[in-house]
């Protein structure tokens, strides 16, 4: 287990992550030969889904404890209490920005419902909509939610495609949350990401997105990018003018790079 943690540390920090990035880019190019229309985001989701199917673990996705596999044993499952303890800081953020039980809420890039489980417990029936690129992650999360809660709250799930975005818009969501997703979107796919976000917005929709903010947009890991404010805003305004956008720190850290919260609203609802 310690060896695995050390190997992970090496390939995800310092000079090691650049080796990983090179390998990831090469694998992506190979994958593109078979999936010419697919994006890096598709590759990101599919490669993690396939690793989970093979019994692997991930920091935030799936139902296994991260790095809980030695070289010869399978990964260990999280117990329900461990699962329930995850994602609470993001749920608190949603409450801080005004989420109420009667709101219709989109969890964009919901993954394995690390945060979604708290939304589902809190929101009224049929008010939670979890979206992701592949269904694998939320199918794992669904199985971890207690059956009576699932039956009562009737959360809805869908994979992301142009039709889903149109259907979401018809629901006139009060909130679109996207937590720990944007940091995995490469700069060349920023416009496509914000296009989908903006196309789900009704006049009253509030969008709350967490991301890694830096002075300059930069690749910070093999599958991680930090974004500067200018690039974020210019991508959003390309999708739709007249939006009210702001960025605030997630925690108390005032210096960059830091985890930040991006807020988007239509100007018509400015107070
Ligand atoms: C680190 S996980 C976070 C999942 C969840 N939001 C959470 O906080 O636990 C990132 C998720 O974003 C999804 N994702 C990656 N790129 C995306 C994109 N361009 N649009 C929507 N979802 C994306 C992945 O499939 C994955 O489920």
Can you describe this structure?
It contains eleven helices and nine strands. By secondary structure, it is α/β, with parallel strands linked by helices. It has two domains: 77 residues, no CATH class; 188 residues, 3-Layer(aba) Sandwich (Rossmann fold), CATH 3.40.50.150. α6 links the parallel β1 and β2. α1 packs across α2 and α10 crosses α11. It is globular, with a radius of gyration of 19 Å. Bound molecules: S-adenosylmethionine. The site of S-adenosylmethionine (SAM) has 23 residues, from α3.
CATH architecture of the largest domain: 3-Layer(aba) Sandwich
Distinct small molecules bound, one entry per kind: S-adenosylmethionine
Helix content: 40-55%
Largest sheet: 7 strands, mixed
Residue ranges: pLDDT <50 for 5 or more in a row? Answer: none
Distance between the termini: 53 Å
State the assembly state of the protein chains: single chain
Within the largest sheet, what's the order of strands?
3-2-1-4-5-9-8
Shape call? globular
SSE ordering: HHHHHEHEHHEHEHEEEHEE
**Count of DSSP-assigned helices:** 11
How many distinct domains? 2
The average pLDDT value, as a whole number, equals 93
């Amino acid at each position: 287990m310690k060896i695995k943690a050390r190997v992970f540390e090496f390939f995800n920090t310092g000079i090691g992550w650049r080796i990983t990035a090179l390998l990831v880019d090469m694998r992506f190019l190979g994958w593109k030969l078979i999936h010419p229309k697919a994006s890096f985001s598709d590759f990101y989701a599919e490669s993690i889904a396939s690793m989970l199917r093979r019994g692997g673990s991930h920091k935030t996705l799936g139902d296994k404890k991260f790095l809980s596999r030695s070289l010869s044993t399978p990964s260990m499952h999280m117990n329900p209490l461990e699962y329930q303890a995850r994602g609470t800081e993001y749920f608190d953020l949603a409450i801080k920005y005004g989420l109420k039980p009667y709101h219709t809420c989109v969890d964009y890039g919901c993954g394995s419902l690390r945060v979604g489980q708290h939304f589902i417990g809190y929101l009224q029936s049929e008010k939670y909509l979890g979206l992701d690129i592949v269904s694998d992650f939320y199918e794992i999360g669904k199985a971890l939610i207690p059956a009576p809660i699932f039956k009562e709250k009737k959360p809805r799930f869908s994979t992301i495609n142009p039709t889903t975005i149109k259907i979401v818009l018809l629901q006139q969501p009060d909130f679109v949350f996207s937590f720990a997703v944007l940091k995995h979107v490469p700069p060349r796919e920023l416009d496509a990401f914000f296009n989908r976000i903006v196309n789900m917005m009704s006049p009253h929709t509030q969008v709350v997105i967490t991301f890694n903010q830096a002075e300059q947009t930069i690749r910070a890991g093999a599958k991680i990018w930090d974004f500067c404010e200018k690039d974020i805003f210019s991508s959003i305004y390309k999708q739709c003018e007249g939006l009210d956008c702001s960025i605030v720190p997630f925690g108390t850290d005032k210096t960059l790079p830091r985890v930040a919260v991006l807020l988007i609203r239509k100007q018509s609802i400015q107070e």
